[in-house]
């Protein structure tokens, strides 16, 4: 009986990939464990093995095909004496690549892309001039490469940034261009290398520290806060820490409680730090370049799910975004939705849905959480008289809480309804797909929150 | 404790010995004065005195050159004076005044001098160890031959980040001298009660780091060991560990009940091993200085310390607007 071989999910956030190369041809006998193909994801090129013995009856997807969705049949495996035509009606999906494939449908679901393509969003926040389409991942890499070319004191250090080409491929190619002196692979030792990087910043360098994820930075947080953030003050202004701590932050997909925390509110609470949290590729590029040039320690919180999304980015090599300046992603009159990073995915989707219901939502992209652009938020709220905040972090002491308090103190008379905060739930991140979905904030939550403040 | 060199065979010139005597005495008198000002309520918070350990910093500074860096823990007054920072600025920081090195915003534990390449003054035990390695990383990256002296105590030597740093410092051959100031008590816990390791420096061997134990009460032994360590680092063969066997006469901080060791133990160290008495003996017995010469030095030091104390009392508190400055560059 013939079985279909399906496109596997090779990482928690993979939705599609490129079938780079077939290593077998039709008619070949294959054994379980034999490598069938090379599959390229946005993170890496990986080999894909057969799970069952059989004969390759048909290759359904030609090599070189990009954008093959997870779980698409890519080949048919038949038994001796069978042909594909004999069995076509009876084909059933094989249990390909048992572990990864099993997780595939839900992983894809949890990381489902916005129904409206990112490219289609209004780009009112970009300066005039030509743009090109690039992913957030490419934008981050380009920002680092450009700044490293510009300033020889800038270097990158972290786990797997060099020879592995980046755990999330952000630093791909940088080792080749800049060499091991400036792209420094470290042992797995966050506390230690964060401290070394802070010391190096005092010694005249501008380190970029990549944390494989910010979850691991909790091991290094003493140096981030006590050593990097406070020294300028404690030294009476004599010496500061010009450096960037960057990496993915917040929930990815199905990686459980210890790998899913959003640290936006934690770092934003610390005087002496600046905190960026980009949404689009333009944000990523413009903010990271500014962060690297900034004379202060900057926490740069990226999002793994956004890495592969494409946006328009100005081609101007001098394009930067100032820290502390929010942008308006969508104009509106009835309610202000304030968000940042992946929260904007829900905010923008909600705005689209609400528009159909006749509610005009203005969407503010904070971009920087410290310093936070109160003026843009307050001006919008004074116009719309209603506010909903959206983030994935925990609810207690959230960025939304802080904005709600600020709006209450500075724009109380303009409010027609209490500010409502949409946040992650007050629970450690569960693994089960249905519970994980429930733990994160959703577009539906945002729609409901907006309707509640509009009394609809 | 390593045996002291015999007093009749000094391997230093008269000028050097007088310099060490003067520098060690400055630290001791300064610290005594700081203790006094603390008792008068002029210095607040935590105040950790360096009395007893003077030979360590003075000996190592004698092995340093211009451009070398140093970083230490919260027991930092001695390091600052030894590297040439002004006693007035240090004392005024202790009293929290605008004339202090950190304009009154750092205090005893958090002082810096970019001019003198003194990078703190760190209140988190062990944090200065990777920070010091990072300073050395920068020097290596920039291609100069500077060395960073990274001081920490026997207490900090049990922190995990010390060993994370050892691993990377040796992996990258960083020009850093790790100086373990083993005064035998981590706050109130004696080394016997905190580890079964027979020595601290030998732990570096697990990472391939060279090192040795040194009589930290003998300024000449300290200097000799420091020169060897520094030469190793400048030759690109760092890091190097020096475990300085030393002793603190005063409590961990000003609020130390001193229940963890006997009065006799402290007195014995003071009378038999004191680093300043050692150099005094070398000078007098070697006929290199007279009692009167040393009295003149004592008088001069006392005057400098009193001048620092007066400055620290007279310097104004920082203006209230300073609350909001120096948060961002």
Core attributes:
heterodimer, A: 456 residues, alpha/beta, OB fold (Dihydrolipoamide Acetyltransferase, E2P), Rossmann fold, 3 domains, seven-stranded mixed beta sheet, five-stranded mixed beta sheet, 14 helices, 23 strands, 30% helix, 23% strand, globular, B: 329 residues, five-stranded parallel beta sheet, two-stranded antiparallel sheet, 43% helix, 10% strand
Query: Pair with the most extensive interface?
Result: A-B, 40 and 46 residues
Instruction: Count helical runs of chain B.
Output: 10
Share in helix of chain B: 40-55%
| Structural class label of chain A | alpha/beta
Q: Kindly give the count of domains of chain A.
A: 3
Rg of chain A over CA atoms, rounded to whole Å, is 24 Å
- The CATH homologous superfamily of chain B: Thiamin diphosphate (ThDP)-binding fold, Pyr/PP domains
Characterization of the model:
The complex is a heterodimer of chains A (456) and B (329). Chain A is α/β, with parallel strands linked by helices. Chain A has three domains: 3-110, OB fold (Dihydrolipoamide Acetyltransferase, E2P) (Beta Barrel), CATH 2.40.50.100; 125-314, Thiamin diphosphate (ThDP)-binding fold, Pyr/PP domains (Rossmann fold, 3-Layer(aba) Sandwich), CATH 3.40.50.970; 325-453, Rossmann fold (3-Layer(aba) Sandwich), CATH 3.40.50. Helices cover 30% and strands 23% of the residues of chain A. Chain A contains 14 helices and 23 strands. Chain A has helices at residues 84-87, 98-110, 136-150, 174-178, 190-202, 221-229, 231-234, 264-268, 281-293, 343-356, 374-384, 399-411, 433-439, 443-453; strands spanning 3-6, 16-22, 29-30, 35-40, 45-49, 54-59, 65-69, 73-78, 92-93, 131-135, 154-158, 183-185, 206-210, 243-248, 274-276, 297-302, 310-314, 327-330, 335-339, 361-365, 368-370, 387-390, 420-422. In chain A, strands 12-11-13-14-16-15-21 form a seven-stranded mixed β-sheet, sandwiched between helices. In chain A, strands 3-6-8-1-9 form a five-stranded mixed β-sheet, with no helix packed on it. In chain A, helix 5 (190-202) runs parallel beside helix 6, helix 10 packs across helix 14 (443-453) and helix 11 packs across helix 12. The termini of chain A are far apart. The model of chain A is unreliable at 89-121 (pLDDT under 50). With 329 residues, chain B is α/β, with parallel strands linked by helices. Chain B has a single domain (14-315), classed as Rossmann fold. In chain B, 43% of the residues lie in helices and 10% in strands. Chain B has ten helices and seven strands. Chain B has helices spanning 14-39, 54-61, 77-82, 87-94, 128-142, 160-171, 219-237, 263-273, 275-285, 291-314; strands at 69-71, 148-153, 176-182, 185-186, 189-190, 210-215, 240-245. In chain B, the strands form two sheets. A five-stranded parallel β-sheet of chain B has the order 1-2-3-7-6, sandwiched between helices. In chain B, strands 4-5 form a two-stranded antiparallel ribbon. In chain B, helix 1 crosses helix 2 (54-61), helix 1 packs antiparallel against helix 9 (275-285) and helix 1 runs parallel beside helix 10. At the A-B interface, helix 5, helix 6 and helix 7 of A face helix 5 and helix 6 of B.
